[in-house]
Specification:
This protein is mainly alpha-helical. The protein has 13 helices and four strands.
């Protein structure tokens, strides 16, 4: 794997964050236009293409400012509340220094060696082995470790895992991940709302209301299709975060600790039991060092084609070549 310097990686991730921030409102406007065009086509039989286009543009001009304003408010709330959201989704809580000086000493020594501010340290009360980094700035940067990974790894292995998570913080991976999680989450929520509206829409009405009922179902169906398209493209935008981020964080850990074999050993143990029961959301799952949910279903297998993590076996092979 070609070596990428720390500064280069930081610049790339900062650029990708800005790019995502610019592309997202463009995607929202395009989807609003798609919704307007489908709605005009479905409700104006026999209308010409020019008429449908004119109606669509008029709808976008009238509604776009309100839609973008609502999405912006939603994004800001989710962006700045991400720490609380992630803690609630993972069950993580603060690990006090007096509770585990061993962990704090490992984190502090690594931060001092790299000239990094000390992040917060959280613990997930789960016997499985996993860890993740989160936060958007020095005030909120956090390294979260499961109780199992603290108890079952030796000092060198745990140091390698902590160094991996600190590399994500140093490379600005976590900020980029938070941005992508918020964007995908917005479309996921819109898709779910449209789907629930469709499920609960009236199926039978009196003859006098049948036309209105059919119109409502058509609108909801169009909204569902558009939201699903938005979710798909927002997910693709999330893959602007290359799988290389995990390889680079592994390399950063090896650079910090000078013990690549220790991280390789830790990854072998993590691969045997990464499942954190509290984690039920795929957007949060991508933060972890290894996917914390077992992949048993066919759908999960297909989704692996779009995985944000490379196979852990490949990561171990790379580390063994250091």
């Amino acid at each position: 794997m070609q070596y990428v310097g720390i500064h280069t990686q930081q610049v790339r991730n900062n650029f990708r964050s800005v790019l995502l921030l610019c592309l997202f409102p463009c995607l929202v406007v395009l989807l609003t236009l798609l919704f307007a065009a489908l709605l005009a086509f479905a409700t104006n039989e026999g209308a010409s293409g020019a008429d449908i286009w004119a109606q669509s543009l008029f709808f976008v001009r009238q509604s776009a400012p309100y839609i973008l304003g609502g999405v912006l408010i939603w994004f800001l709330i989710a962006y700045f509340a991400n720490t609380a959201i992630i803690q609630r989704a993972t069950g993580a809580h603060s690990l006090e220094r007096k509770e585990n000086k061993r962990v704090y000493n490992l984190v502090e020594n690594l931060c001092m060696s790299q000239g990094m501010p000390m992040p917060k340290v959280n613990v997930i009360e789960d016997d499985s082995l996993n860890a993740f980094a989160s936060g958007i700035n020095n005030r909120t940067f956090t390294v979260s470790l499961s109780r199992g990974i603290i108890n079952k790894l030796d000092d060198d292995e745990l140091e390698g895992v902590i160094a991996h998570e600190l590399s994500h913080i140093r490379n600005r991976d976590v900020r980029l991940l938070i941005v992508s999680i918020v964007f995908v989450g917005i479309f996921a929520m819109l898709t779910e709302i449209a789907f629930r509206m469709l499920l609960h829409s009236p199926r039978s009405r009196s003859s006098s209301n049948s036309k209105n009922g059919n119109g409502t179902i058509i609108i909801v169906l169009i909204a569902l299709v558009v939201a699903a398209v938005g979710f798909f493209f927002a997910t693709l935008m999330r893959f602007a975060i290359s799988r290389k981020r995990e390889y680079l964080a592994d390399a950063g850990s090896a650079e910090m600790t000078r013990k690549p074999q220790a991280l390789a050993s830790a990854l072998r143990k993590i691969a045997r039991d990464p499942a954190i029961e509290a984690v039920t959301r795929d957007d949060v799952a991508q933060l972890f060092i290894e996917h914390p949910r077992p992949k048993k279903s066919l759908a999960a297998g297909i989704s692996g084609l779009f995985a944000t993590h490379p196979p852990i076996e490949e990561r171990i092979k790379v580390l063994e070549q250091f």
